[in-house]
Design goal:
With 153 residues, this protein is α/β, with parallel strands linked by helices. The chain is 38% helix and 14% strand. It is built from 6 helices and 5 strands; from the N terminus they run βαβαβαβαβαα. Helix 1 links the parallel strand 1 and strand 2.
Length: 153
């Protein structure tokens, strides 16, 4: 299993970026791919063309998200602010070709370091944690939850 964080360039150095926590503590399961509108990553394009990756994003089908995550070994999560992620999706037509799913958890996001989060929206590390739980990687999910809690306080 591999989780790719399609990351906006402004997100890489932000102190509030939760994707960095996932990368640091995930035992190489999580990898960052820099999003470039005019020059998309060739490995990501190959996964999309071969229907080997699932995009977790807010426009997906929430009813099938859990089963869809089980069906794919490659998961792509957009790692940016909510406003930037919408722009990434709108400007990356290659993402339209791939299956989309949305994760939902009971309650709301625990992330409190940024404003203007949409209701029901999850931050990057919360998405990674949920994917790991679905995939049965509970020990790693617990480790990331502990790191996130410490970061978020």
């Amino acid at each position: 299993m591999k989780i790719f964080l399609l990351t906006h360039e402004r997100e890489i150095d932000r102190a509030t970026n939760t994707g960095s926590i996932a990368i640091k503590h995930s035992n190489d399961i999580v990898e960052r791919i820099l999003w470039q509108r005019l020059n998309p990553n060739k490995d990501i394009l190959k996964l999309i063309d071969n229907n080997e990756a699932l995009l977790l994003y807010s426009k997906g089908d929430t009813d099938t998200a859990q089963s869809m995550v089980h069906d794919y070994e490659n998961i792509i999560i957009i790692d940016s602010t909510w406003q930037e992620s919408q722009k990434i999706v709108n400007k990356s037509h290659y993402l339209e070709k791939m299956p989309h799913a949305t994760l939902e958890i009971p309650g709301s996001s625990r992330y409190k370091l940024r404003r203007n989060q949409p209701e029901g929206g999850l931050c990057t590390i919360e998405c990674v944690i949920e994917v790991l739980k679905i995939k049965g990687e509970n020990q790693l999910a617990s480790k990331l939850e502990a790191e996130f809690s410490q970061f978020n306080d």
